[in-house]
Amino acid sequence: MISRESGVFQTSYEGDMALYTLPLARNTTRVVVALLVLLPIPLMMANNEHLMSIVTTIALAAIGAIGLNILVGYTGQISIGQGAFMMVGGYTAAILSSRYGMPFWFGILAGGCTTALVGTLFGIPSLRIKGLYLAIATLAAQLIIEWVINHVPWISGGAQSSIYVDNPELFGFEFNTEFRRYYLVLVVFLLAFFGAQNLVRGRIGRAFIAIRDRDIAAEIIGVNLFRYKLLAFAISSFYAGVAGALWTYYLRIANYENFVLVVSIEYLAMIIIGGLGSVLGAVFGAIFIKLFPIALDLTVVSVSEGVFGIPYQDVANFLANMQLFLFGALIIFFLTVEPEGLARMWEHVKRYFRLWPYSY
Amino acid sequence: MQSRCATKWLGALGVLVVLLGTGGLLSADEIVVGGQCDRTGPTKFIGTLLCPGANDYIKLINKKGGINGHTVRYIEVEHAYKVDRGVEAYERIKRAGGVATVDYGTPIVYALTPRHMEDKIPGLTPGFGRADAADGERFPYIFPVAASYWSQAGAAMQFIKDQGAAAGAKVAYIYYDNPAGREPLPIFRRICEQEGYSCREFAVPPPGIEMAAAVLDITRRMRAEWVVSHLFGKAPAISIREFRKNGFPLNKVVSLVWGAGEMDMIAAGWKNAQGYLGMQFAGVGRDFPVIRDIVSMYEEDGQEVPDMVGQVYYNRGVFTAAIIVEGLRLAVENFGLPVTGEKVKMGYERITDFTLGGFLPPLSVTAQDHEGGGWVRIYETQGEDLVPHTEWFQGYRDVVLDEVRKAGLQE
C-alpha cells in the first residue's frame, strides 16, 4: 500500500521537521537519487559517453539555476549577472589549481566563496533599487566582470583568456573519464539541491520569501533587509561560483566565453520556465533548456532522414532554423499552459494522483 | 484538466529522452568523420557557406569512389556557437564512430582540446583556437593546418614590409577585443620593435559595431600608413565603411582571414570596398580543378550551381574537407584498416606539398608543425571580385616559431 497523508502521524520532532514527511515522497527521492547514482553503469556498458555528457551538462546547469532561483525566485531580486558570477568561480578555481597546485575541492569551495564576495558587492545596489532597475544594475556586473577578466592578464592568463587545468584528483583517484566526472558533478549537485531545499524552508528562506512578497511588510515584521538581501546575493553567487568552478574542472579549461551575457539570460529562462520560487523547478528548467535543443536536433535529423528520406544536408539550413522555431514554440506553449512553470505542472500531476483512483 | 495535459506532455518528454539513446550504427567499409557547424548562431553567415563546402567535397570524393574504395560519411552537427552544444556535438560524432573531427569556433576549440588528447581523435581547427597549438608535440591531436593568427599577423607584417614600409613607418593594428582578436598582439609588437615601426593598437569592443572614434584616430591623429585589421562578424564591413568615410586608401588596409569574405564586401557595398586587401588560407573563386569538379558534379545531377560555390567561406569548407580526406587517404594507405584516430593523426602528419591544383598553398604538416607552414595569400577587392594580389607566402617564420617555442616553455 502506498502511503498517503492520511494515517501518517509524526510522533517526534525529528519526524515532523524532516525534509520529506511522507513516506511516498521520501521513497521517491531515494529511488531518484539511486537511479542517478546508478545511471553511469548501463551507459558505461553501452559505452555511451555522449548521453553521459548531456546528463552532466544538465546537472551543471541545474546547480547554477538553483542558485539563481534563490535570488530571483525566492528573494525577488532580478539578476542578469549569473554568467559573470560563474566566470568568477571558474577563473578562481583555475588559478588556484593551475598556478598554486590546489586540489579541486579547494578550488570549488574557494570559487564559491570568492564569487559570494563579488556577488555581495554587486548586490549592494539592491538595497536601493528594485525590479527591472536592479536587473540593469546586475547587467553592469556582467559587463564589468567580463571586462576585468579580459584585461587583467594575471586573472585571464594572457591574451587567450583561457587557463588549462589538470584532471581533478582525489586521493589518487583521477576523474579522467566522462563517467567519473559525472560523479564529481552529481555529488555537488545533490549537495546543492538538498542544501537549497533545506535553506528555503528555514528561517533564512522564509525571510527571503517575505522580502519577495513585500519588502516593507517584511521589514515591519522584523526581517533585516540589508542583511537578508545581501545574504541572498551571497548564497546565489556561491552557487554560481561552484557551478563555474565545476565547469572549469569538467572542461579542464577556464574561458570566459562559456559564460557570456547570453548564458545569463539562458539561466533566467531556465528558472522562469521551470518555476520561480521552486528548487525542483530550477532543475526542470535546466533540463528543458539544455536537453530540448539537443533532443530536437536529434529528432529533426532522424525524422528528416528516416521518415521523409531527405538527407540532412539538402535541407540543413531549414532544419537548423526550424529547431529554433520549435524550441521557441515549446517555450510559449509550456508557459501558456502553466505560467508558473514546470514545477507547478508537476504539482498538478501529484495532486491528481493524490486522490486517484477515487478522484471525486 | 490541466493535470491530465501535463501528464501527457511529461510522457512526450520521456519519448524524446528515449530517442536520445539511439546512437549511430557503424558499417564496415565506411569511414566516419564529423564536423561542427554554426548555421543559426552569431557566425551563421560563415557557417551557411562553409558547411556546404565541406559536404560537397565529401560528396565529390564519394562519387569518385571514396578513399581507396571506402565511402566517407560526414556527420554535420549544429551547435549554434555554444560551448556546451559544441561538447555535445563532439561526443555525438565520437559516439557515431568518428575518427576525425572539424571543430568550429575558438571557445569550442579551447573546450575540446583536452578531450581530443584524451580520446586520441584528431581535431581539425582551421583558423580557430590558440596559435601555439601549431606545436604538434604539445598538442598532438590538434591540427590548425591553416595559418594561425600568429602566422597571419606575421604574414601581414611581411606584406607591409614587401610593399616598402621602412623604419619609422606608422602601422595601426585594429582588433576585436576578445581572445581571438588579441592573440596576434605579441607577434605584432615584436615585429614592430624589430623593424622600428611606430605602431599603435586600437581595440574595438564587442559587438564591434562602434569604431568611428578608433578609425578617426587612426586616419587623422595617428595618420597611419598601414593598417592591419583583425575583426569578426559585422565589424569588418563597418570598418571598411569607416575607413572609406575618412578617405583612407583601402589598399593600405590588410585584413586577417575572418574579415575578408564576400559577405563583408556586400555589407559594406562593393563600391566602397574597392582595393581592400584580405588574407586567405584557401583559394578564392571557381578557377581551380577541385571547384570545377564540384560545379560539374552539380551539373551532372541536373542541379543549378549555387552562387556560393567558389566564394571565400565555401572554399574554406572545401579546404577543411580536403585536408580530412587527404589525412584519411594517407592513414588508409600507410596503416590500413580499420581507421582509428591515431592513424588519422599520423596520416595528417604525412601530408607533404599538398596543393590540390593551386587551390591550397604547398602544405606540409609534420609531427612538430601542425600548422602546415602558415601560408597565406592576399586578395584584393576589384569590381565585384576578389583578385589575387600576391602569391602564397609566409612571413616572419622565425618570430612566429620562436613565440610557439616560448609558449611551450611557459607551460
Structure overview:
The complex is a heterodimer of chains A (360) and B (411). In chain A, 73% of the residues lie in helices and 3% in strands. By secondary structure, chain A is mostly helical. Chain A has a domain at 40-277. The mean pLDDT of chain A is 89. Chain B folds into 2 domains: 27-147 and 282-374, 3-Layer(aba) Sandwich (Rossmann fold), CATH 3.40.50; 149-280, Rossmann fold. In chain B, α4 links the parallel β3 (101-102) and β4 (123-124). The model of chain B is unreliable at 1-6 and 13-26 (pLDDT under 50). Chain B has 411 residues and is of the alpha/beta class. Chain B has helices at 2-20, 44-63, 83-95, 106-119, 149-162, 179-182, 185-195, 212-221, 235-245, 262-268, 289-300, 312-335, 341-348, 397-410; strands at 30-37, 71-78, 101-102, 123-124, 142-143, 170-176, 198-204, 226-230, 253-255, 277-280, 377-382, 385-388. In chain B, α2 (44-63) crosses α12 and α12 (312-335) crosses α13. Chains A and B meet through α4, α14, α15 and α16 of A and α1, α2, β2, α3 and α4 of B.
Supply database-style keywords.
heterodimer, A: 360 residues, mainly alpha, two-stranded antiparallel sheet, two-stranded antiparallel ribbon, 16 helices, 4 strands, 73% helix, B: 411 residues, alpha/beta, Rossmann fold, seven-stranded mixed sheet, five-stranded parallel sheet, 44% helix, globular
Order of neighbouring strands in the sheet with most strands of chain A? 1-4
Our Rg estimate of chain A from Cα atoms comes to 22 Å
CATH homologous superfamily designation of the largest domain in chain B: Response regulator
Mean pLDDT of chain B: 86
CATH topology of the largest domain in chain B: Rossmann fold
Major β-sheet profile of chain A: 2 strands, antiparallel
Name the structural class of chain A.
Answer: mainly alpha
Element-by-element helix/strand order of chain A = HHHHHHHHEEEHHHHEHHHH
Shape of chain B: globular
The largest pleated sheet of chain B is described as: 7 strands, mixed
Give the helix proportion of chain B (percent range).
40-55%
CATH domain class name of the largest domain in chain B: Alpha Beta
Alpha plus pi helix count of chain A: 16
The mean pLDDT of chain A is 89
Largest Cβ-defined interface: A-B, 49 and 50 residues
Q: How many distinct domains of chain B?
A: 2
The CATH architecture classification of the largest domain in chain B is: 3-Layer(aba) Sandwich
